[in-house]
Amino acid sequence: MPSSEELAKPLARAINIYSRVTRRELDPNVCRELARHIKKLAQQGVEDPNRLTVHGLSYLRRHLAAPRGRRDH
Q1: Distance CA 3, CA 11 (A)
Q2: Distance (Å, rounded) from C-alpha 52 to C-alpha 16?
Q3: Tens digits of residue pLDDT in 34-64
Q4: How many other β-carbons are positioned within 10 Å of the β-carbon of residue 56?
Q5: What is the mean pLDDT of the chain?
């Protein structure tokens, strides 16, 4: 399993990318949940930092996206 330092990089990348794209800051609780999610994936054998970043972005999109049918144009 990657070290905490190695897990911090994909975590930070996912947070930075999501924040830039959505133009919003993430709640500290969401960041903690994301960190747990990425750590769990690493424990399951996902070691590639790029893959962990993509999983992190998918997690954020699923958990923070606006409800369907309510999109700003």
Answers
A1: 13
A2: 14
A3: 999 999 999 999 999 999 999 999 999 999 8
A4: 23
A5: 90
